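anyone else get weird line breaks when pasting these?? whatever heres mine. first is seq + tokens for prot A
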Amino acid sequence: MNEYKTIKQSMSCEITEKKSRFISHIAPITNEENVISFINGIKTKYWDASHNVYAYVLRENAISRYSDDGEPLGTAGIPTLNVIQKEELLDVCIVTTRYFGGTLLGAGGLVRAYTKAAKSAVDAAGIFRRIYCDLYNINTEYSMVGKIQNAAANAGCIMGETAYTDNVQLQYFVPYNILNFKDIIKEVTGAKAIITKQNKGEYISV
């Protein structure tokens, strides 16, 4: 997978529906072992809650799972999973804790409440893309810097660190789908820049 979306950070938020409290925790997690630990941690913290509903989707082995944790079938875990899938997120787990407020919400009310709680958690955490990139180093004269920066930006490359010595050292993260990066830089610099590929690829967040 060369590109995917995930959340920026772990967050928690709370909503109230007819006196029932819905406390959602969301976290970026990359493997099932850590997911289980996260879910168990929430269950331990909220041991006295009516329900601890969860859903998660992982890149590893294309895993997606959910639990209604005692809520009527299809009213809690699936709506939570649907929020994750609608946003096209991977490596994400959401656990929503419910404290019953004394008023039954009905199946439709539960679906709306768990959907709202999960979406609130996603919005609070924020979303970004993770793109597989190669890292290039460019050694160039000062007079070429502006041309390189414009060409790289127009191509969709992400600028890294810059060092100024006798020449300028520019770093660029080049997304997987840009196959002619060296040709682009050679063209705008008249082949005067020295372009070196620094690694075989890594994910960066944009």
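and prot B, same format (seq, then tokens)
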Amino acid sequence: MYRETKIAIPIFKKDKNSALKAGKDYIKKGADILELRIDGLSNPNTKIVKDIIEEINFPTIITNRKKSEGGFFEGSEEERVAILQECSCVADYVDIELQTDLKYIKSIKNSAVKTIISFHDFEKTPPVDDLLAIVKKEKKLGDIAKIAVMPKNLEDTIIVLAILSRCKDTIAISMGELGSYTRIIASKFSSPITFASGDDTTAPGQIDIETMKLMLNMVFLDHDDLIKDVKNL
């Protein structure tokens, strides 16, 4: 059912006031969770991030993407992780990439309430077995596994559904316009979180919150038949 899957909207703003305004707007539009993209802030620091989260006072994921993971953080890796760790006490989730040094992942895990371990491939969709191995690694390190991959054809998007059908506590997204429907259908597989946009699109294929809520409340696929088909992949 829809309510099993929470809608997260990323806040991607350059300054504190803009982030606060956007957060309040996204809550009114129906977000269940806000994702504060720290790497979107100009010269981010621990105080600014904590102030934003505490003033919004709403369930929040904190994310600080480096360039190789599709982000914009320009500081050192130590600085990037330090902000996440120091702000984990006020966030509900910390998203840290699987490719991050293991010592940093463990430090985040020890300080965060819950962790999302994420993997991104902006060029392709790896085979099912490869993605299952990635999800297995992520689950050993954190609470929720996340993969976001780029499809080259419709068959690639079905691979993502296969991951959702086999893996609990997993966010799996096929990016781009071709894979945008996976953000909606994820609710049929009880994915914990899916992502929509408020005003700024932070990932290819993201759907606006109004359309997302409308589509999530529509019954347009038979759940049992869908599960059976993708499990056969």
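btw re prot B: The chain has a mean pLDDT of 90. The longest strand covers residues 115-121.
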